[in-house]
């Protein structure tokens, strides 16, 4: 996997999909209005993302991601990554999957923060978690759920 910033505009999302890659791992995913001038539009991972946006099921579980977040937030993001394509789960369920307690205010806040600050939405699919903020803009999250039929 190359190093750099790769981006392509998606008519389906009405936004650009931008992926940052370093040391063979995805380090960031964002959805800006337009691609950065220095972004390369050609990358095999972008090809997969656009096939997914066209309706091809892809869990992206083989994509190497670098999660530079606190350990408890990492647990939440790794649990979220295990939610299958086309399914949605409650925030309480993700909290339990992460080994945290949904009745503990601090654990709920940890989960909400992890999802809101998720550096790699799409590859850690926070749009599959109901009743929690995700890192992707709400319009993008809605479209991703519609694409997955969730």
Distance between the termini: 30 Å
Mean pLDDT: 94
Radius of gyration: 15 Å
> What spatial order of strands do you see in the largest sheet?
1-2-3
Inertia-based shape: globular
Which stretches of 5+ consecutive residues score pLDDT under 50? none
Report the order of strands and helices: EEEHHHHH
Largest sheet: 3 strands, antiparallel
What is the number of E strands? 3
Given the structure, what is the number of helices?
5
- Portion of residues within helices: 25-40%
The portion of residues forming beta strands comes to 5-15%
- SS content category: alpha+beta
Question: How does this structure look, described?
Answer:
This protein is an alpha+beta fold and 150 residues long. The chain contains five helices and three strands, in the order βββααααα. It has a three-stranded antiparallel beta sheet with strand order 1-2-3, covered by helices on one side. It is globular. The termini are far apart.
Sequence-ordered SSE layout with sheet pairings:
Blueprint: E1 4-10, E2 15-22, E3 25-30, H1 44-53, H2 71-81, H3 91-97, H4 105-116, H5 138-148
Antiparallel strand pairs: 1-2, 2-3
Helix pairs in contact: 2-4, 3-4
Question: How is this structure best summarized?
Answer:
The protein has 150 residues and is an alpha+beta fold.
């Amino acid at each position: 996997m190359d190093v750099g910033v790769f981006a392509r505009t998606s008519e389906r999302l009405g936004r650009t999909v931008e992926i940052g890659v370093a040391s063979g791992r995805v380090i960031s995913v964002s959805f800006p209005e337009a691609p950065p001038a220095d972004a390369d539009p050609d990358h095999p991972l972008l090809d997969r993302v656009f096939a997914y946006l066209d309706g091809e099921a892809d869990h992206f579980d083989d994509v190497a991601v670098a999660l530079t977040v606190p350990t408890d937030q990492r647990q939440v993001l790794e649990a979220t990554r295990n939610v299958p394509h086309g399914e949605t789960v409650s925030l309480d369920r993700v909290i339990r999957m992460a080994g945290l307690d949904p009745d503990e205010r601090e654990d709920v806040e940890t989960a909400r923060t992890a999802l809101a600050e998720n550096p790699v939405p799409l590859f850690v699919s926070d749009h599959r978690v109901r009743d929690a903020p995700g890192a992707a803009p709400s319009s993008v999250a809605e479209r991703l759920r519609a694409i997955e039929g969730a």
